[in-house]
Write a structure and sequence with these properties.
The complex is a heterodimer of chains A (112) and B (139).
Chain A: H1 2-26, H2 30-70, H3 76-108
Helix pairs in contact in A: 1-2, 1-3, 2-3
Chain B: H1 4-31, E1 48-57, E2 62-72, E3 78-81, E4 93-96, H2 101-137
Antiparallel strand pairs in B: 1-2, 3-4
Helix pairs in contact in B: 1-2
Classes of the chains: A mainly alpha (112), B alpha+beta (139).
């Protein structure tokens, strides 16, 4: 599920790059250019928000499992499984975030 | 459709759970290896067995192992001549549990090996997932 999210993130970045290219090549007036720029900003926001939400959900599941383990309601194996899953989601979220931020910085450094 | 790697962890975890239960039964058998009855001629502890079953988990679409049932070993009891024992019958023989230490030790070893194998699956999944995520890290 997260892999597909990462792919969609990369697609969004590609789309935003394309939008920028169209904007710069067409040399549209500033008033017209604000509309697509704000659309990309929303996409970027929503992608980051969704990413954070995903990571937080799995982290919460991991925490709930470890609390259940401490209370003796879950076996150690189940706690480890949940924690591993949470760790993996977090690692993936961090990597995707780094990649997205990197791409965003790449965009901001672009000479226009 | 769940991530196959995650499904592997889930399956391996069910194996770990099953082997833990098996070890619990072995521990019970070993601890009660000399548990005789209190009254004369009464039955001592009977060796417990555990059987596993493959159950389909619909959320991941794979077969997990789980404990089917706890059974009892119906083999005859060991008999020892000890007339002074409270559980001795009229001929002076005491019934001891049908627990064979060697069998229990072998079972324990097998449990350990199986647990290790399942744990190895979990480790492998972790390393494969880390490799995949590392693809994003490289510049």
């Amino acid at each position: 599920m997260l892999e597909s999210l990462a792919l969609s993130t990369l697609n969004t970045i590609g789309d935003s790059l394309r939008t920028r290219q169209v904007q710069t090549s067409a040399l549209t007036p500033a008033s017209a250019a604000t509309q697509p720029a704000s659309a990309t900003a929303t996409a970027f926001d929503s992608v980051m928000g969704q990413l954070a939400k995903e990571a937080v959900t799995t982290l919460k599941a991991g925490e709930a499992a470890s609390i259940a383990g401490l209370q003796g309601r879950a076996s150690a194996q189940q706690v480890v499984e949940a924690m591993m899953s949470a760790e993996r989601s977090l690692q993936l979220a961090i990597s995707v975030r780094d990649k997205v931020v990197q791409a965003y910085q790449e965009l901001t450094r672009m000479a226009i | 459709m769940i991530d196959p790697l995650q499904a592997s962890v889930r399956i391996a975890t069910s194996g770990l759970d099953a082997q833990s239960t098996r070890l619990r039964i072995v521990a019970e058998n070993l601890a009660n290896a000399n548990a005789t009855a209190k009254a004369a001629g009464a039955e001592p502890y009977r060796r417990k067995t555990v059987t596993f079953d493959a159950a389909v988990d619909s959320t991941i679409g794979a077969r997990l192992v789980n404990v089917k049932e706890f059974g009892v070993d119906s083999s005859p009891y060991r008999v020892e001549y000890d007339p002074g024992h409270p559980a001795a019958n009229e001929n002076g023989y005491v019934k001891l549990p049908n627990v064979n230490m060697l069998v229990e030790m072998a079972d324990m070893r097998e449990t350990n090996r199986s647990y290790e194998a399942n744990l190895q699956v979990v480790k492998q999944v972790r390393s494969m997932a880390a490799m995949l995520i590392d693809l994003l890290r490289g510049t």
